[in-house]
Specification:
- Helices cover 15% and strands 40% of the residues.
- The chain is α+β, with helices and mostly antiparallel strands.
- The chain has an eleven-stranded antiparallel sheet.
Length: 237
Amino acid sequence: MKDKKLIVSSIIIIAAAIVVLLFSIFGGIGGGKTPAVLLPGSGSDTAGDSSLANVTPKTVQSVIATLSRPDSYSCAVTTEDFWGEDGYGKSTLQVWVMGEFTRIQLTENSREKNILVSADGIWIWYSDNSAQVFHADSAQGTDADRWMRAVTYEELMDMDADSITAAGYAKYAGESCVWAEYETPELGIRCREYISVNTGILMGTESWDGTKLVYRMKCGTPSVAPQDAGLFKAPDA
């Protein structure tokens, strides 16, 4: 019986970690339309203006601070891990966001898995067995993003500007993005983050160990249309 409880607890914690990763990346941090990016001293608020290329490690946090995510949107997210000579792992998730709610759907062992997270908790269930629902307080998974290697640009905003080694403006995943690069002090991994200037959504992250790409997350083109409220209804636990 103890083993069964341990397995269930482990499933909830692992799934919660996935949710924390995605909720921290895609959860709303401010409503409304993202304002146009105005670089300090650039004299331009046009996202396509060449002056945007002048963003620097010293100014990139100020630029990102002008951005906010929409209250309601959806997107597909692809994560890739690269290890060893030919080791490779890939996951694709569909994400819907409405206010404080985030709904995630992914295929796991040929089964469709659903995860719903809100301020009230986390729910996990499979589409082919919606009667069996795992439920837990979402706060229990807030520390798990460290070992899940969750990357958020809120962490980037908390860094000392001297820790940011490079920054710029570029196209990424089809979006005009501000990007910033830094090195993790613990492992010396070089990380780069791309944030859309049109939506404020994190479009991608890349992690490098020396010259080797070890991790990549890429967001598909977001839809900022209102989402179906039914997607965010918690199942009966």
